[in-house]
Design brief:
Blueprint: H1 2-5, H2 7-15, E1 19-20, E2 25-31, H3 43-46, H4 48-52, E3 55-61, E4 64-67, E5 80-85, H5 87-97, E6 112-118, E7 128-129, H6 130-133, H7 135-139, E8 142-148, E9 151-154, E10 161-162, E11 167-173, H8 174-178
Antiparallel strand pairs: 1-2, 2-5, 3-4, 3-5, 6-11, 7-10, 8-9, 8-11
Length: 183
């Protein structure tokens, strides 16, 4: 009789978490995902206890431990949270805490890569700095190299002047970069 009465307690201890008698609750450890909708908000705004029924007892952030976090504490990506609740409550909270945004990616549409762009005499980019020329916005990319007067410059400063005859190496949407080669 005594063994059967305590069977649940022994099972829970074997699972690796202590049971909080007389409640059907325990402490669980969760890691906050960067995609979680909880990130960057105050605990008072999140209303976690009201929404999920769990209590955040501790937040571990790098080498810092926040015990009994207050209403103004926030959850950040990769925070380790010690939460108290039932299996059901913790599982509901886990869905938001460890949330990962997974979108189907159409691999046919991925065209990100490295391309060269020759700057002609009448190019709209000539005689402008990398920062001011608008290539970043038009290609969804970055100028990562410049060939200028026989010299190669890797990772040029955004203040670098683009001149006729330069060859820019741009990493970005290949289709958008190719459309620039109209000179």
């Amino acid at each position: 009789f005594v063994f059967n009465l305590n069977e649940k307690d022994f099972t829970d201890v074997k699972k690796g978490y202590p049971i909080l008698a007389p409640w059907d609750s325990h402490i669980a450890e969760l890691k906050a995902s960067p995609d979680s909708p909880l990130i960057g908000q105050k605990l008072s705004e999140l209303m976690i206890r009201e929404r999920f029924g769990v209590t955040i007892a501790l937040i571990a952030r790098g080498g810092k431990i926040i015990t009994a976090p207050g209403r103004n504490d926030m959850i950040f990506p990769a925070d380790v949270l010690k939460v108290i609740g039932s299996d059901e409550q913790i599982d509901r909270f886990r869905k938001d805490c460890e949330f990962t945004a997974i979108e189907e990616i159409d691999t046919q549409r991925i065209t990100y890569g490295l391309r060269s762009v020759f700057i002609g005499e009448k190019s709209r980019y000539a005689n402008k700095t990398i920062r001011d020329c608008g290539l970043r916005e038009q290609t969804h990319g970055l100028v990562v190299g410049v060939e200028k007067s026989g010299q190669r410059l890797l990772n040029p400063d955004s203040a670098t002047l683009i001149e006729p005859g330069d060859v820019l190496w741009v990493v970005g949407d290949q289709n958008l970069i190719e459309s620039l080669n109209e000179f």
